[in-house]
Write a structure and sequence with these properties.
By secondary structure, this protein is an alpha+beta fold. It is built from seven helices and 19 strands. Strands 12, 13, 14, 15, 16, 17, 18 and 19 form an eight-stranded mixed β-sheet that branches. Helix 3 packs antiparallel against helix 4 and helix 4 packs across helix 7. The radius of gyration is 21 Å and the shape is globular.
């Protein structure tokens, strides 16, 4: 006899009864008042595009507030960064209460099949570029800014960051506290200059968007980000469905991207890229090279390595020069 595992779902309770909202198709579900959402909630206290649930490759499901006016709450606590949901969590959007269920049997099945899944789906070695963006001084910000304003601003940041990354041909692969990771999958053996330009353009637009939010919200100090980019081979697979793929990447190339973002704070720069990333960018750097070489010690690596770093202003000037250069 085959046992059917329960599907993760939301339970909406109202005076007329309970409604089950299954998280079955795809890997991302939006919640809001607008008709375009996956789950439409007719509550005037809910924003048109209020929040999003995203399933990750390890089976975890994140709640991301999309900059809603009145906030998203998990067990009575307002969400200001993407948070992992646990079985039985109580969610509040506006004046609407829901419960999140992902039964223990589902998690047990995920744990038991994790090794098999990794072998079955993460089997293609691909050349990729990994971008890690981190919000600077976020802990300090949480202590100095009103919780409601902070949640709305950070929700807007995550929503707009996702839009920018998708615009330039990638997707948000992971949420790690106040940081996001995006992946570009390249050809079998090489990366075109235009592909590298898309990565750099996304970094520039993320910086500009962050500055715009600093102008809109009454922050005690400007909202800032740091960026790390690394290019190399990694094991890549599709853990989503045919119509809604969900690619993920694992390996040293990914780890180094996080380390590169971290060292930007040590060397006083905004963006750091790896040696391979820089080499693929060389054809773009003939007229203007904003990146300065640094020999750095990345955490967890035995030998010093070369990184190339720049300020956001230098990156922007480079892109303006690129835009003004006639294409042959």
């Amino acid at each position: 006899m085959v046992t059917v595992q329960p599907t993760p779902h939301l339970l909406l309770r109202s005076e007329s009864g309970s409604q089950r909202l299954p998280l079955a198709e795809g890997t991302c579900w939006t919640i809001g008042r607008g008709d375009e959402n996956d789950f439409v909630l007719g509550d005037r206290w809910i924003s048109r595009n209020h929040a999003m649930l995203q399933s990750m490759e390890n089976g975890e499901i994140y709640l991301i507030d999309l900059g809603s006016r009145n906030g998203s709450f998990v067990n009575g606590r307002r969400v200001s960064v993407p948070v992992t949901l646990r079985n039985g969590d109580h969610l509040t959007f506006g004046q609407t209460e829901l419960e999140f269920y992902c039964p223990a049997s589902q998690f047990e099945q995920d744990e038991e099949s994790r090794e098999f899944t990794a072998t079955a789906t993460l089997h293609v070695r691909r050349l990729i570029s990994v971008l890690v963006i981190d919000i600077r001084d976020y802990t300090v910000l949480t202590r100095q800014l009103d919780e409601g304003i902070l949640s709305e601003m950070i929700g807007q940041w995550f929503r707009r960051a996702g839009d920018i990354i998708r615009k330039h041909g990638s997707w948000v692969d992971k949420y790690i506290g106040d940081a996001v990771m995006a992946v570009w999958i390249h050809g079998a053996q090489e990366v075109s200059p235009q592909e590298m330009l898309s990565v750099v353009q996304s970094v520039d637009e993320l910086h500009q968007m962050t500055n715009e939010l600093s102008q809109i919200y009454p922050v005690p100090f400007p909202l800032r980000i740091g960026a790390g980019v690394n290019t190399g081979f990694a094991m890549v697979g599709n853990t989503g469905t045919g119509d809604r793929p969900d690619y993920t990447a694992l390996g040293d190339t990914v780890n180094a991207a996080f380390r590169l973002e971290t060292i930007t704070k040590q060397i006083g720069r905004d963006v750091a890229i790896g040696e391979t990333t820089y080499q693929y960018m060389v054809p773009l750097l003939i007229a203007c090279d904003p990146f300065k070489q640094h020999t750095v010690n990345l955490k967890g690596y035995d030998e010093p390595t070369n990184a190339y770093a720049a300020s956001f202003q230098q990156v922007n000037e480079f892109l303006l020069r690129q835009a003004a250069t006639p294409r042959s």
